[in-house]
Amino acid sequence: MPPSSFQSKVLGAFAAALLVVAALCITTWKLANDASEAASWVAHTHEVLGDLSRVRGNTLQIELNTQGFRVSGDSRHLDERELAMGSRETAMQHLQQLVADHPDQLRRWLQLREVIDQRIALSRQIELLRKTQGMAAATDFVNKAPLKETRERVRTLLREMEAEERRLLDERSAAQRRAHQVWMWVGALAAGSLLALLAVNYGVIRRQLREAATSRRIINEQNQDLERRVLERTAELRESKDHLRSIIANVPALIAYVNADQRYVYVNQQYHDRFAPHRESIAGCSVLEILGEERYAIAEPLITKVLQGQHQSYDWQPFPDVWQVINYVPKFDAGHRVQGYYVMGVDITERKHAEERIRSLNAELGQRVHDLEHVSRGLRTLSAGNRTMLRSADETTLLQGMCEAIVGAGGYDVAVVWYCNNDADKTLRAVAEHGYAEGLEALDRLNISWADTPHGQGAVGTAIRTGVSTAIRDMGSDPRYAPWTSAQLQARASALACPLRVHGEIIGALAIYDTEPGTFEQDELTLLTESADDLAFGIATLRARAEQEENQRAITRLTHFDPLTGLPNEVRFSEHLDAAIESAGKGRSSFFALQCNIERLTEINDALGFSQGDKMLCEFGRRLRAAAPESAVVARLRGDEFAVLLNDGDIDRLTATLQGLEAALSAPFAVADIPLDLSATTGVVLYPEHGRTPHDLFRHMDIAVHQAQRKGLQHAIFDPTLNQSQPGQLNMAGELRRAIVNGDLRIYLQPKVGFASGRICGAEALVRWQHAERGLIPPGEFITLAENTGLIKPLTEWVIDAVLRLNHQWQEQGRALPIAVNLSARNLRDEELLNRIRRQQHSLGLRAGLLELEITESTVMEDADFSLRALNLLRDEGIPLYIDDFGTGYSSLSYLQKLPVEYIKIDQSFVRGMSFSKDSAVIVRSTIDLVHDLGRKTVAEGVETQAHWDQLAALGCDIAQGYFIAKPMPAAEFQVWADGFRAPASAAAASSA
Fold first, then answer.
1. Contact 420/450 with Cβ under 8 angstroms?
2. β-strand partners of 752
3. What is the spatial distance between Cα 401 and Cα 382, in angstroms, rounded to a whole number?
4. Whose CA is closest to 98, among 41, 146, 152?
5. pLDDT tens, residue by residue, 25-39
6. Nearest to residue 644, comparing CAs of 655, 654, 633?
7. pTM over cut 0.70
8. How far is CA 111 from CA 138, 158, 402, 468, 579, in A?
9. N or C: which end of the chain has fewer CB within 10 A?
10. What is the SS3 assignment for 890?
11. Confidence of residue 373 (pLDDT cuts 50, 70, 90)
């Protein structure tokens, strides 16, 4: 198509389209104008109807208030009537303006005005008669006055005006719809024309549309590819994070995990700071990329071996002046295929510096050996001693090797290592020697000492006392060696003793003896002293290494074995379970697992002390181990729970084992020289019928124990049919945990009011659960669940935090008041509770006394002495305390007198029963008198009626709480309620008034 023809056709089409658009605009304007006019009439009608409705409602309210005043004489009805009259007058005036252009409606309005004025006059007359002549005169006037006729006249006029207004609205709406249809046809015709014009351009621009579609397709494909790569990268990062959680981040070592592709999955902070401090993260990077080519060339052969499943360990120097010992540990999957390897590195720079120093000294001595003939033996001794130190794996080998090196390589006559005895005589013992024919026992008979006595004046004793190397040029003529005979000295003339200082403490001395007098010159003495220092360093290094190995063994014992009984612990037992499950899976076999719970262990601890309970646990574990088959695994899981793993699933062997266990445990236990019969309950599970994971087997063993306890049996095999409700409880516990974290709990407050002042003196905080499906759940349905599942601690912490934040907000408004929070027995034993409250109050700047705590009487009496200590700590922090449900816990008066509480709450069961039970009334009266005698205040719960209020006020109760005052309400509504609160008057006060 020629360009000129295309342009002219497009221009012509657009000109025609402009005309059609103009027609559409006119049509749209007309439709909008009609719609606006119709909306105006609808609004006008709604205003008229609204005013008529307000006139009708206010008229009814005025009549009710007039009748209420006539009957009761309460002037508040007149106040409400006047407000209703004012509202009706406003509606009447507005209604007059709305119907002013409608003669019929205006006529009706005037008639309505007349009737309303007549009813106002009647109402005023009734008011006057009631005030001046009483209710009888007013009632007589009501019976005679035309109230009913005027009431019907008002209703008739209102209905007529409403009907007329609705009729007008219908007429106008019908006319507007007809006009709307005409203009809609016009608009449709114009729109059709516009569509026809647009269709002409379709063929021209179709090719360009196709090209645009192609471009969009390419972009979509690129976006999909990008999204796929993002998802893959996200999966890799998630896997890296899972590995990261399994490694202790703060271990003082370099730790990393590398996959089979030699890419980092996780590194700890030490590794990251050492090899890639400039990078934000090295997860996903290759080992070559992070280490660099030079370091990777050293590590690559070892990485190849570890990826073949071989453990690797080596020393290397990745940076100048930095040495590390690196261990590569392969990670295998279930099929024993290598998935990757762990990297564990420890800095050994200090050790390497020492080794380097030793090597440098050896090299230096080797260079000077030809010039220093006199110190050649010292050099050889030092070199040989250092070689010995580097090769020795333990202290005994090191000491003996050093003595042999001194005699063999150095050419000295005798070498002895002496260690100090920390006894009263400060004796010395020979721990290693070479060259002394009679051996160590003969050396010990020399009675050498490091005390300031004649036997301590020799080179060894002097060196240890002074901390300085000591040389004796001629032992035979030196008076310091007078205590020893020539036979004991065995023709030795020279002696040198160098103190061995380990970690700043002298532990002994290295002594060297020679037959030539004056052997040890100053240069040689210096070298041998240095050799002794190196020996001391070697001793310190070996001891540190031994201590590390012992610590590692101790960690293994602590993490895998019970420190009390020596049996495997729960972690170790879980590993045995994993191995048994894997073995059973390969051979398609089964096995039994047992859990044995000791009954009444708590009673023994309480009666005889924990030490006796621990002895009994050790004896129980010993009997269990002795009675179980040799191949069985016996472990202590926790507290009074033990477990046994039988390596096969034969029921006859299980029966025999159970009989043996029960027979072994049936004999009395001697506890504090008291023979006690102790019973145990055993739960049994069978793999794989009762679970295929350690978690399921542990859980079902525990359930089987409880099933046996409920049936009164010594043992029971897990019965799945008796545990069908447990998943629901666990599910609800999980939902409750998420509700605490996600803030789905709500604080409700129930006010407390003082009888004497009639004022609100505080409130009790109650928690509600706003469930997404079940709505608002009361505490009775989840508090027990929280107690049983350990969620009571985070639940109580959430309530305390919410109450403190609420009072912080009220304190800034100048409206703070005390709010009480309930504590359970577990909360009372929480050592961190007080510190948490103290920190929160300090951070919010709350004044003391705004947080109160309530503890039930039964909670206090579970462990009265402990409760007394815990409550004293809370009271010292300035927290007012309540004893809740008093009268139901059987507390003694002596403990009640000691408890540092300000308030005693009388249980609501006694308050509710006062009206019909003399016993309850006596209990309440006696409790109030007792509490007052003890200098405390009483709070009555369950005040639900005026009679309760009157009785408690007469008995001198201090504070009331109950539905008669207010039901628990959302915390956000409390202050609004408090603004409108009026204290209830007692019946006696009302009658006297």
1. yes
2. 762
3. 12
4. 41
5. 777 777 667 667 766
6. 633
7. no
8. 27, 10, 131, 129, 99
9. C
10. coil
11. low
